[in-house]
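Researcher: I'd like a structural prediction for the single chain below. Treat it as a standalone chain; there are no partners to consider.
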Amino acid sequence: MTFQIIKGIAKWTTILTMASAATLTLATFANAADEYNVVNGYTLSGHPLGLHGVDPVSMFGDQGPIVGDATHAMTHDGIDYYFATAKAKQAFEANPAAYLPQFGGFCAYGVFVGKKLDGDVRYADIVEGKLYLFVNAAILEKYREDPQAVIAGANAKWPGIVHTPVSDL
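Model: Treating it as a single chain, here is the predicted structure.
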């Protein structure tokens, strides 16, 4: 083989490898978007943004939801989260499961009825140390009629819809 042919093969091998890597990366983000309620678009790191940029640690404090800052960002499971302070970021890093909303941040009542509705941090409940989000005030009130039934039903339904795209529900 001539040098030009070998050089051409090496070029196309590199292009195909990069295209494959890009496809796998985008597929990971697409899957993450099915499992997590994320903001449309991506952060500077190229990941989707979780909790609409609200600091997940702040949901467990007395001040309520606090908008995070990109200077205190962290990626967890392919999703970026913003934190109000470095201390909040450290708390999350130590135990992400303690702060992440249930059902990927989708509305718990929506999951209960088999849908993935937007979870809004303004309409939240913490039960046994777990954060549940709801789409609006009316749905939060509906949930409050029988929270244990809604949580149990959503927990039963979630494994069957976790990987299902929102548009397919």
